[in-house]
């Protein structure tokens, strides 16, 4: 069994879709408006990705401390060890500008499927049963009634890992 494609997103696309550009920051938005671009503004919400975790335990007999990173590590629940630092999560904060917009092509058609390469909205693209969650960067959308409808499907767009 080949595992080379295990982490690639599922896709049966044989069609190339247009990409929707995202602009971030008020200066970039002002420039795009001056150029006459049609923009769809979205609220930028903070998102803190959990990128790892650890606990510190100490062997009761030897006094030696260990950093563990897996909930299944026997040192985390053995009577031979005491917990010095309980499970601590490591976060990656996205420090993106507070304003953002999608640049919409003038010739977009109602019902057209597009790819948004830099999502403003926060969707989970990867999650792990040990607490890690990472933001999805890109997703399909449909232009409908003058707005982009992001077509996020967690069964397709989110990789769920166990282990």
The value of Rg in angstroms is 22 Å
- DSSP helical segment count: 2
Which range best describes the helical content: under 10%, 10-25%, 25-40%, 40-55%, 55-70% or over 70%? under 10%
**Shape descriptor:** elongated
Q: Which structural class do the helices and strands define?
A: mainly beta
Largest sheet: 6 strands, mixed
Q: Provide the β-strand percentage band.
A: 35-45%
Spans where pLDDT lies below 50 across 5 or more residues? 1-11
Q: H/E series, N to C?
A: EHEEEEEEEEEEHE
Strand order of the largest sheet: 2-6-1-7-10-11
How many β-strand runs?
Answer: 12
Could you tell me the mean pLDDT? 85
**Total count of domains:** 2
Structural features:
single chain, 163 residues, mainly beta, 2 domains, 6-stranded mixed beta sheet, 3-stranded antiparallel beta sheet, 12 strands, 8% helix, elongated, disordered N terminus
């Amino acid at each position: 069994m080949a595992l080379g494609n295990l982490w690639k997103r599922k896709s049966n696309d044989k069609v190339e879709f247009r990409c929707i550009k995202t602009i971030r920051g008020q200066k970039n938005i002002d420039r795009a408006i001056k150029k006459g671009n049609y923009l769809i503004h979205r609220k930028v919400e903070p998102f803190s990705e959990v990128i790892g975790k650890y606990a510190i335990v100490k062997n009761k007999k030897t006094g030696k401390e260990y950093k563990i990173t897996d909930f299944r590590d026997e040192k985390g629940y053995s009577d031979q060890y005491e917990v010095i630092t309980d499970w601590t999560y490591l976060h990656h904060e996205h420090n993106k500008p507070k304003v953002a917009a999608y640049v919409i092509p003038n010739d977009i058609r109602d019902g057209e499927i597009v790819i948004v390469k830099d999502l403003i909205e926060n969707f989970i693209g990867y999650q792990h049963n040990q607490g890690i969650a990472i933001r999805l960067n890109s997703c399909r959308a449909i232009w409908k009634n003058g707005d982009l409808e992001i077509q996020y499907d967690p069964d397709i767009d989110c990789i769920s890992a166990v282990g």
